[in-house]
Structures are given as C-alpha cells and as structure tokens.
Amino acid sequence: PCVPRGIFFSHGSGEHTLKLGISSDMRLMAIVGEETYYSNDAISFEGLHQLEVVIDANTDERLTTISFYDGTKLIGSSQHEGLYEGTGRYNLGGINGNSTNDFGNYEGEMLEFRLWNRALSMGEMGEYAQRTLTGYELGLMDNFPLNEGQGEYSYNTVVSGGDLYVGGSEWHVP
After folding, report:
1. Phi, psi (rounded to 5 degrees) for 139
2. What pLDDT, on a 0 to 100 scale, did the predictor assign at position 167?
3. How would you label 144-168 residue by residue, b for 16+ Cβ within 10 Å and e otherwise?
4. One digit per residue, pLDDT tens: the chain, 174 residues?
5. pLDDT at 63
6. Gap between the Cα atoms of 85 and 4, Å rounded
7. How many CA atoms lie within 13 A of 111 on its CB side?
8. CB–CB of 90/153 below 8 Å?
9. What distance in Å separates the CA atoms of residue 143 and residue 173, rounded to the nearest whole number?
10. Which of helix, strand or coil describes residue 72?
11. What whole-number distance in Å separates Cα of residue 124 and Cα of residue 101?
12. What is the DSSP string of 96-133?
C-alpha cells in the first residue's frame, strides 16, 4: 500500500500561505507563511485513519496555536506568532499554483475533508468522526465527502460553502 506523505491542503499565497501535510518521517506538519511546525509523534498508518490539525487564533494576543491530533490523541502543539490571514481558493491534494512546495504533493488516499471555523473539543472530534454530517453543524465551514467517484469537483454539503476543485486526482470507488 501507498504510504501517505506530502502536502494535502493549501490556502492563500506568498507570506499568507497555509499548507498542511505529512512529512517524510510520518509526522503531521503545518506551514504558516515561512514557518514549519511538526507534530511530536509520528503517525502509523494501518487502515482508515482520522487526522486533525487545529489552528486556533487568539486575536487579542496575535498568537495562533497549532495542535496535531491522531484521532482524539494530541500528538503535538506549537505556537505561531501572528495570525493566519490568507485568502483565496482551497487546494486539496497539493498546493496552489503560485506557491512553492519542498515537500511534494500528497500521495495517498483521502476519505473526507472537513473545515471548521472554530476549534473543536476532543469530545466533539470523536463524536463528529463517527457520523455523517448534515452540513448544518455549528462552525462547519466546508464538508467534502469526496464520494463523487468521477469529475473534477467535490461538492460541499454545507449550503453556504463552495465546491472544491480536485482536478488531477484519481478517484477510487469501492
């Protein structure tokens, strides 16, 4: 089986870029602008796996806490000085065209991608991981089930969210 690694999500451009991925030593990573943060622990991929990167901004102190989870187990946390203020489209599976990437585009399989506008508690992470979302959950910005099986877009189940371009990806259908 393929060992997942590389950038699986990117947003923004230039110094206002956010990239999320898996390093060659199997740790979760977040790149905010020019700064790279890693989970303390590596991930062992044995079947379906739930991973989370929580980016929680403290606007008063202008600090961002980046927490990495393997399921509901915290495997690392870092402080980023400043706030992430990127704009633009999301890119799943790699990076936006005007950004550099030293880690490579994502090589692996993905079942679903969810984006929240608030940090979830560990209880909420566990609860939401076990069910199909309706698109009306508090704080859910985007939910892409990635179950289309063909085409260049994944459709968002959140009513106010946009669809996600996934061109160049290979669909796997059971």
Report:
1. 85, -5
2. 67
3. bebeeeeeeebebbbeebeebebee
4. 455 678 888 888 777 888 888 888 989 999 998 899 999 999 887 767 788 898 888 999 999 999 999 888 899 999 999 988 888 778 877 665 544 556 667 777 778 888 888 888 888 988 888 888 999 999 998 898 888 888 888 899 998 888 887 766 777 776
5. 93
6. 28
7. 8
8. no
9. 19
10. coil
11. 32
12. -TTS--SS-B-BS--S-EEEESSPPPHHHHHHHHTS--
- Structure tokens of 79? 């402080």
Helix (H) or strand (E) holding 42: strand 35-42
Question: Which among 125, 118, 29 has a CA at the least distance from the CA of 73?
Answer: 125
C-alpha distance across the termini of the chain, in Å? 16
How many Cα atoms within 13 Å fall on the side-chain side of residue 69? 18
Sheet holding 73-81, edge to edge: 51-58, 63-70, 73-81
C-alpha span between 127 and 9 (Å, rounded)? 23
The pTM for the full model equals 0.83
